[in-house]
Amino acid sequence: MKTRYLFLSLGFFFTLCKADAQTKSLYETVVALDSTYFTAYNNCDMQTQAAMYSDSIEFYHDKGGLNTSKKALLKSIEENICGKVTRELVKGSIEVSPIPGYGAVEMGMHMFHNKLEKDAMPHPSRFIIIWHESEGKWTMTRVISLH
Questions:
Q1: Which residues of 59-71 are buried (b: 16+ CB within 10 A; e: fewer)?
Q2: Measured between alpha carbons, how far is 11 from 3 in angstroms, rounded to an integer?
Q3: pLDDT band at 15, cuts 50/70/90?
């Protein structure tokens, strides 16, 4: 009987270790995606940004409303952000949760620095990104940006 409990306990322990390793790997993947995207955002690399948005993007902005056009979203970023605004991640703020069979949800805090308003003080704001993984390629399908 004790042997049976030992094997059950070991099985449970190894399952937890495997799940923890998978969660850590997913976290590292999403943090790298976030870094890649926002490096492109800060440097006006529109090609990289376009590749990371799903064709069916839904971008929810608490000031600008909902945008469901990838083309319009990229145009807005190019006209209103490029050379004017940069994003800084609040260190340690990213949380990642798996969405089984789909991808992951990323939540965190970031600040935007407006180069045109030198005296404007950036403040932390929340964001949520839904990432979809298909055949090894990750794209953003939903973004919620709150200021």
A1: beeeeeeeeeebe
A2: 12
A3: very low
State the Cα–Cα distance between residues 71 and 74, nearest whole angstrom.
Answer: 5
Number of domains in the chain: 1
Using a 10 angstrom Cβ sphere, with 0-12 exposed, 13-18 middle and 19 or more buried, the burial of residue 10 is exposed
In the beta sheet, which residues pair with residue 113?
Answer: 86
What is the DSSP code (8-state) at residue 122? Answer: P
pLDDT of residue 12: 42
Residue with tokens 């390793």: 21
123 neighbors 111 (Cβ within 8 angstroms):
yes
CATH of the domain at 114: 3.10.450.50
Q: Regarding beta strands 125-134 and 53-61, do their DSSP bridges make them parallel or antiparallel, or are they unpaired?
A: unpaired
Which residues form the domain of 49?
A: 2-145
Distance CA 107, CA 144 (A): 9
Helical ranges in the chain per DSSP H? 2-42, 46-52, 70-80
Summarised one tens digit per residue, pLDDT across range 22-65 is 578 999 999 999 999 999 999 999 999 999 999 999 999 999 99
